[in-house]
Write a structure and sequence with these properties.
CATH class of the largest domain: Mainly Alpha
Mean pLDDT: 91
Oligomer: single chain
Strand content: 25-35%
Largest sheet: 10 strands, antiparallel, barrel
Low-confidence stretches: 11-19, 304-308
Radius of gyration: 30 Å
Helix content: 25-40%
Order of helices and strands: HHHHHHHHEEEEEEEEEE
Distance between the termini: 70 Å
Number of helices: 8
Amino acid sequence: MRPDSPHPRWLLLAMLLAGGAAAQQDDLAQRAARAAAAADWQLAQGLYAELTKQQTDDPAAWYQLGVSTLNAGGDTSQALAAFSRARELGQPAPPVLFGIARAHAQAKDRSAMFAAIDEMVALGPSRGLLRNLQSNPAFEFVRSEPAFAAALQALTPCTSARYRDFDFWLGQWRVVSPTDQPLGRNTVVKTLDGCMLTESWESAGGGAKGFSINYYDSASDRWTQTYRDNTGNIAGWPDLRGGLREGAMVLENLENPQNMSRWTWTRIDSNKVRQMAESSSDGGQNWQVVWDSYYLRETESVPNLAVQ
């Protein structure tokens, strides 16, 4: 052994001390989490304050310190400092920004509050942030302001104009052929808080039934339709994708050049829609009409089912 090498006993003691410190920190974090879960905010605030002294680079601990400080009715400037530190360390932006907005709201700093809300809106729609802004009493003093209402609208998912591209298809319809022969009935409604259209089809004879979901994907900027019927022939109904073309909804599946399909919904007027399907077996050089129908509105009311 070299003369200047640490004695094995000292190494063992150092390891034991380090392990004990880590165990104490873990115990402190667990106690703080239990206090927060029990809504004992003053205790949680004290424990998280101690934890951030021991773990200065833990973003979650700093964030929870900010939350517990606000919930305990503490100094909003201390909460803001905790949220800022959490943000610097990489805590996810949405909850931190809400905490910052809430702290400014509790301090009645309207300008700083709206600046934080604007940052939240810039992140895109979020039902979680929307619920928090709607339910937290700190924002009561601005609830009637147009700017706050606009922020809530911007945070609400599926409310941009693109999500309404297919609204002309909503309703209860009697479906007929171009020669006015009855083909069936269809009901198209909005579901999932406006994020999806669902179609329920039944043929005139009552034997064939089908159901489709239709939704806009903002990431790909495309509409998608998935249709299934009571034949169980999933392969016969591949997903269709597309969007508006000159006011008509055009959804296609072009993956197989020998079996390409294109469906088009055209608004004739507020009470009439044409639905036409075409197929191609030569890579899209030639198209044949395989379905042609007209939707005649049965009722002026358009149901809007809220599906959880």
